[in-house]
Design goal:
With about 425 residues, the chain is an alpha+beta fold. It has 2 domains: about 350 residues, Chorismate synthase, AroC fold, CATH 3.60.150; about 80 residues, Chorismate Mutase Domain, subunit A (Up-down Bundle), CATH 1.20.59.10. It is about 35% helix and about 15% strand. The chain contains 10 helices and 18 strands. A 5-stranded antiparallel beta sheet has the order 1-2-3-7-4, covered by helices on one side. The protein has a 5-stranded antiparallel beta sheet with strand order 9-8-10-16-11. A hairpin with a 2-residue loop joins strand 8 and strand 9. Helix 1 packs antiparallel against helix 3, helix 3 packs across helix 7 and helix 5 packs antiparallel against helix 7. The longest helix has about 35 residues. The relative contact order is 0.12. Flavin mononucleotide (FMN) binds next to helix 7.
């Protein structure tokens, strides 16, 4: 069975183990002549890398992208593309003590029972490193998705739940609730000091998704998303829209009523009958606590001896932040396929003038936003004059630029360029004031 291949239209095959020579992906069916987005893919790989957060593992890998085939003069040739990332920062001897031990929570025992071969070196193909291939593959299809935007953030980590959602509040956990962030950090520090780990629930919101994606009956959009997300190691469940809480709702509250402007509610999470409705697509999924912990637990050896095992070294206390780029990659792969299918049904392909029309529309929206900003600046100017306040406020200006820079990074934008643009806008605002 080709269980390491994925997708029908945009087909990928991934390979490699955590402590083998390399991890990689082969992609077929890429159109010829596309400028290969090397930097963009490397950036995505950097975002997936461990070691960014305070509660992250210490294995440091450069994860440098190598392209073995399918590219000529920086453009795709239309032939299979092979992307490779070498595993460098590990010593297989470090794992010798695990040769006969099945670590609790890991897939060691199930892999052994299935294949009768035990690659004890750090989880093999069940390791988080396997997800590098998925992230690399997703980098090639970003443009295909147009203005679809994917936002993923935790709504629960251990006993903490988001209550006051503020998407402008950014941090290494992507936790958007100021009110309990400090307590959450303390909680995670304590779990880390105990050598333990914790999981959580991630919320996904996909906007600007066209109606009509998803193909009955075995390529339904929710079914394909569920498969893609649950195929990520450590993900244990998924719910769409109101999900499991629908069990307690009566039909009149669960149905999404419609009026001439569209859906009034979105209990379904933007999918009906496996096809996107055009409403925001929402789902949540649960990530189990990191399997490797520095706490002694009962387990068995390959020859069925009972022993106690405690993982040594430092591990991720919570892998939630590391799952986000991987989940994003999987969603992109699912949507790319669904879009490609829909294009076949629509019998419509975008021409250069279609794309120019899209760009013109975005430019128009930018101009409207700048004009609205200018008007508000004028109001601020009047307010300041009335209350005898200075037009100069360097602290506010610095905070604003910092905030913009953080958001630019979050949305994969060139933060220096964005900073430059905002400086010009701020200078202009001061002139108006
Ligand atoms: C990006 C990513 C990073 C991970 N990092 C770790 C880790 O550092 N330690 C660990 O024990 N499990 C880690 N895992 C989880 C394991 O891959 C997985 O939980 C384990 O092998 C078996 O769980 P499963 O039954 O859900 O596949 C990671 C998973 C992903 C997707």
């Amino acid at each position: 069975m080709r269980s390491n291949s994925y997708n029908k239209y945009y087909g990928i095959t991934t390979f490699g183990e955590s402590h083998g020579k390399a991890i990689g992906v082969v992609i077929e069916d890429v159109k010829p002549g596309i400028l290969f987005p090397f930097k963009k893919i490397q950036k995505l790989l950097n975002e997936r890398k461990p070691g960014k957060g305070k509660f992250s593992t210490t294995r440091k890998e450069q994860d440098e992208l190598q392209v073995l085939s399918g590219i000529f003069n920086d453009r795709t040739t239309g032939l299979p593309i092979c992307m490779l990332i070498y595993n460098k920062n590990f010593k297989s001897e470090d794992y010798d003590h695990l040769k006969n031990i099945f670590r609790p929570g890991h897939a060691d025992i199930s892999y052994y029972k299935k294949f009768k071969i035990y690659d004890h070196r750090g989880g093999g193909r069940a390791s988080g490193r396997e997800t590098i291939s998925r992230v690399a593959a997703s980098g090639l299809i970003t443009d295909l998705l147009g203005d679809i935007s994917i936002n993923i953030y935790p709504v629960k980590i251990g006993k903490f739940t988001i209550s006051e959602e503020d998407l402008t509040f950014c941090n290494h956990l992507n936790w958007h609730d100021r009110s309990n962030y400090d307590q959450l950090e303390k909680y995670l520090k304590k779990i880390k000091s105990e050598g333990n780990s914790i999981g959580g629930i991630l919320q996904v919101k996909i906007d600007n998704i066209p109606a009509g994606l998803g193909d009955p009956v075995f390529e339904k959009l929710d079914a394909n998303l569920a498969k893609a997300i649950v195929s990520i190691g450590s993900v244990k469940g998924i719910e769409f829209g109101d999900g499991f809480s629908l069990a307690a709702l009566k039909g009149d509250l669960a149905n999404d009523e419609m009026d001439k402007n569209g859906f009034i509610t979105n209990h379904s999470g933007g999918i009906l009958g496996g096809i996107s409705t055009g409403s925001e697509l929402t789902f949540r999924f649960v990530v189990k606590p990191t399997s490797s912990i520095n706490i002694s637990q009962k387990t068995i050896t390959k020859d069925n001896k009972q022993i106690k095992f405690k993982s040594s070294g430092r591990h991720d206390t919570c892998i939630i932040p590391r799952i986000i780029p991987v989940a994003k990659a999987m969603i992109k792969l699912v949507l790319a396929d669904a879009k490609a299918y829909q294009k076949l049904i629509d019998n419509k392909s975008h021409t250069l003038s279609d794309y120019r029309e899209m760009i013109d529309k975005i430019d128009e929206e930018l101009l409207i936003a700048i004009s609205r900003r200018q008007k508000i600046s004028e109001l601020i100017g009047r307010y300041k004059k009335k209350h005898d306040l200075s037009t100069e406020d360097s602290k506010r200006e610095n905070d604003l630029l910092q905030n913009i820079k953080t958001k630019a990074n979050m949305w994969n934008l060139d933060s220096q360029l964005i900073k430059k643009i905002w400086k010009i806008l701020l200078e202009n605002s001061k002139k108006i004031q």
